[in-house]
Design brief:
The structure holds two protein chains of two kinds.
Chain A: E1 8-11, E2 30-40, H1 43-46, E3 56-63, E4 70-75, E5 79-81
Chain B: H1 26-40, H2 46-54, H3 58-63, H4 66-80
Helix pairs in contact in B: 1-4, 2-4
Classes of the chains: A mainly beta, B mainly alpha.
């Protein structure tokens, strides 16, 4: 699924044993797409010697965990529609 | 939520953040150069470098400096790929 700027999304809370780029502090949080960066080889497979294909789209997701704002770069397969 | 030792963001702490800089030692510069050469030759990519760092036992991770973690990872990944024999660097 492709997301658009401004769309509400939830960052998946699923456990993942191997290398991945979704920090624990943002798992399960809901925010909005702020920016669509580009697509990149998937580091989750590339970290184990594979080619990282198919590429995954990378988004900037903004949310408010407290009285401050956080923007975090999250790959598409870690996002869920929260509209 | 369970998290690995390297996944530091959002850890509650009252400890001050050490923002001091230090000059890099020769071995640290060489370690950086080595990682880039290995990437350039297609022997090891940055995601593998990170994965190797994340495989460190948590107490070793806490004790190690930034480039000590890189060295641990480079040795781990190159041994895994058979570029280095197990224990070769200890000889």
């Amino acid at each position: 699924m492709t997301y658009r700027v401004g769309q509400r999304v939830r960052i998946a809370a699923r456990p993942h044993e191997g290398h991945h780029r979704t920090p624990a502090y943002c798992k399960g949080k809901t925010g909005r797409i702020e920016r669509i960066h580009a697509s990149f080889p998937n580091p989750e497979t590339r970290a184990y010697g594979e080619d990282g294909l198919p590429e995954q789209r990378l988004y900037s997701v903004g949310f408010n965990p407290g009285d401050f704002r956080v923007s975090v770069d999250i790959y598409e397969h870690w996002l869920e529609d929260a509209e | 939520m369970d998290r690995a030792v390297h996944d530091r963001g959002g850890w509650p702490t009252d400890a001050p953040i050490d923002r001091s800089e230090h000059d890099l030692a020769d071995w640290e510069l060489l370690t950086d150069a080595l990682a880039h050469v290995l990437a350039g030759k297609g022997l090891m990519n940055v995601d593998e470098l990170r994965r190797g760092i994340e495989s460190m036992p948590p107490d070793e991770y806490e004790q190690a400096s930034y480039y000590e973690r890189w060295l641990y990872s480079i040795e781990t990944i190159l041994t895994e790929k058979g570029v280095l024999a197990p224990g070769e660097l200890n000889a």
